[in-house]
Amino acid sequence: MNVEQIANQLVSYCRTGQYEQAHQELYAETAVSIEPDFAPRPRTEGMEGIRAKGQAWAEMVQEVHNSQVSDPICAGNHFSVTMITDATFKEGGRQQIAEVCVYEVQNGKIVKEQFFYPGPPSQE
């Protein structure tokens, strides 16, 4: 698959909540996931770690009320999408999280994902 095909397939999987299928089919085993520095896991390497990170996130969520994933924008061996999730967390209550997600593809697989979203409100 080329970058555009991978991007469209990832969006399709994300829109239907098929994250494990996306990981199995579209990601390299050596993929890296990067979150902002304030996140509990700012850098995760390898699919085993990425799957564990996804499972930990799912365990924090009480209910997802709505989830939106944009169409992808592709350039070279990268693509990006926006994701908006409205969820109630077991601790922290209901929140809406908007993020920009950037993916790098090499040899027909996603090798890197990086997420950009705002941190917790400043205490100043």
N-to-C SSE string, H for helix and E for strand: HHEEHEEEEE
Q: Helix count, per DSSP?
A: 3
Shape: globular
Report the radius of gyration as a whole number of Å: 14 Å
The averaged pLDDT comes out at: 94
Largest sheet: 7 strands, mixed
- CATH-scheme architecture: Roll
Percent of residues in helical segments? 25-40%
Report the portion of residues in β strands.
over 45%
Count of the domains: 1
Given helix and strand content, the structural type is alpha+beta
By CATH reckoning, the class would read Alpha Beta
The number of E-state strands comes to 7
Uncertain runs are none
Rounded to the nearest angstrom, the distance between the terminal CA atoms is: 48 Å
CATH topology tier name: Nuclear Transport Factor 2, Chain: A
Keywords:
124 residues; alpha+beta; Nuclear Transport Factor 2, Chain: A; 7-stranded mixed sheet; 7 strands
What features would you describe in this structure?
The chain is α+β, with helices and mostly antiparallel strands and 124 residues long. The protein has a single domain (3-116), classed as Nuclear Transport Factor 2, Chain: A (Roll). The chain is built from 3 helices and 7 strands. The chain has helices spanning 3-15, 19-26, 47-60; strands spanning 27-34, 43-45, 61-69, 73-75, 78-89, 93-106, 109-116. Strands 1, 2, 3, 4, 5, 6 and 7 form a 7-stranded mixed sheet that branches. Strand 4 (73-75) and strand 5 form a beta hairpin. Helix 1 (3-15) runs antiparallel to helix 2. The N and C termini lie far apart (48 Å). The mean pLDDT is 94.
